[in-house]
Design a protein that fits this description.
ten-stranded mixed beta sheet; two-stranded antiparallel ribbon; 6 helices; 12 strands; globular
């Protein structure tokens, strides 16, 4: 998976320890659909991705441009990859004992694209302001797809990130609001995550829907980067959430970590001084708050620091590492993939032995 660096970064990407808790929220702006689609038909627009080779994001020679602030134009949707197969795979994992869930195809390297071709459902969801990243063929061999709500960082849209497409290639349904998050909007953004999840679950019950009977309503997660991580903390008490994933987004209000009720993964860059800035490559300005959230969490947490700054999710090699850890965690928690359980638990956990990561764990073993 490869993604070129963006030409410019928004100043309000969010989730930073320097943000003011009582600051005036900026105006949320719905993201504009990709040009050339015309009027959306009933039920939204389906886009099938082009094919690419193993480990490469097809059509991503350059990242889409990023708005300078939340009130400027949004980037056009980037081309999405379709069928990208990992070089090898291990035997399919067994389904959870006592469960009627069908096991998903096994993979060996979570940093590679998964075994499913991917496609998009655009202009769907509440007010037709959501995009769904999904396997092109739903329910293959009887699998039921877990649902992941996604929220981007401040000043960006989901088209900037490779993670939603990577997750879809592993069999997840990713529901992303077509908005440009602004500073101080985590409560509203959290509601938008929940609204998207609610819509997906309703579509799972609606005859005639493309998602009808294809989702697993007992396997739901929320994930976000920076401001999107803060939004995920806001809704983490929702009892339907099996897990949450927080990427470079530590709470500015430390009491919000108490919203966690399920196991969580925190993925952040290198902690640095109070002067650490958004563009610093050597430190993550959110990491100090990530540390504090880990200390305050009362639920099981896997906390990993990569060597790099706040924008690590946007470019390799950090983006590949972050994508891979997120895939591995969600396969473990939402697909009952015991193989990846050993990457996070036990005295010799795989990530514990990986020199690219500094790992801390709470109540996982």
């Amino acid at each position: 998976m490869r993604m070129a660096a963006a030409a410019s970064m928004p100043a309000d990407i969010g989730g930073a320890s320097t943000g003011a808790e009582g600051a005036q929220p900026s105006q949320a702006v719905p993201a504009m659909p990709a040009p050339g689609d015309g009027a959306a038909p009933t039920g939204g627009t389906m886009v099938t991705a082009g094919a690419g080779g193993p480990g490469e994001m097809s059509g991503n020679a350059a990242a889409p441009s990023v708005p300078a602030a939340a009130d400027e134009q949004t980037p056009a949707a980037a081309p999405m990859p379709a069928e990208e197969m990992p070089g090898q795979s291990s035997p399919a994992p067994e389904a959870e004992e006592g469960s009627d869930r069908v096991a998903f195809p096994a993979v060996e390297d979570p940093e590679q694209m998964g075994p499913f071709a991917t496609s998009l459902m655009q202009r769907v969801g509440p007010s037709s302001l959501y995009t769904v990243y999904r396997p092109q063929e739903l329910g293959k061999d009887g699998v039921k797809h877990p649902v992941v709500g996604w929220m981007s960082g401040g000043g960006t849209t989901h088209t900037l990130y490779t993670l939603p497409t990577v997750l879809a290639s592993h069999g997840f349904i990713v529901v992303a609001a077509d908005v440009v998050p602004g500073i101080g909007q985590e409560a509203m953004l959290g509601k938008q995550i929940i609204d998207g999840i609610d819509w997906a679950l309703a579509e799972n019950e609606r005859e005639g829907s493309e998602l009808f009977g294809k989702l697993d309503p007992g396997r739901i997660a929320s994930s976000g980067y920076s401001m999107g991580s803060l939004a995920t903390f806001m809704i983490a008490s929702d009892p339907r959430l099996t897990t949450t994933v927080h990427i470079s987004g530590g709470n500015m209000a430390p009491e919000r970590v108490s919203n966690l009720h399920a196991p969580a993964a925190f993925i952040c860059g290198t902690p640095g001084p109070a002067t650490c800035g958004l563009l610093d490559a050597a430190c993550d300005l959110a990491a100090a708050n990530c540390d504090r959230d880990f200390e305050g969490a009362q639920t099981p947490v896997f906390y990993a620091n990569f060597t790099g700054g706040h924008l690590g999710i946007l470019t390799p090699p950090m983006s590949d590492m972050i994508n891979g850890m997120t895939v591995a965690w969600l396969r473990y928690k939402l697909m009952d993939d015991a193989t990846f359980g050993t990457w996070f638990t036990g005295p010799d956990c795989v990530y514990c032995q990986d020199s690219r990561w500094k790992v801390q764990r709470k109540a996982l073993d």
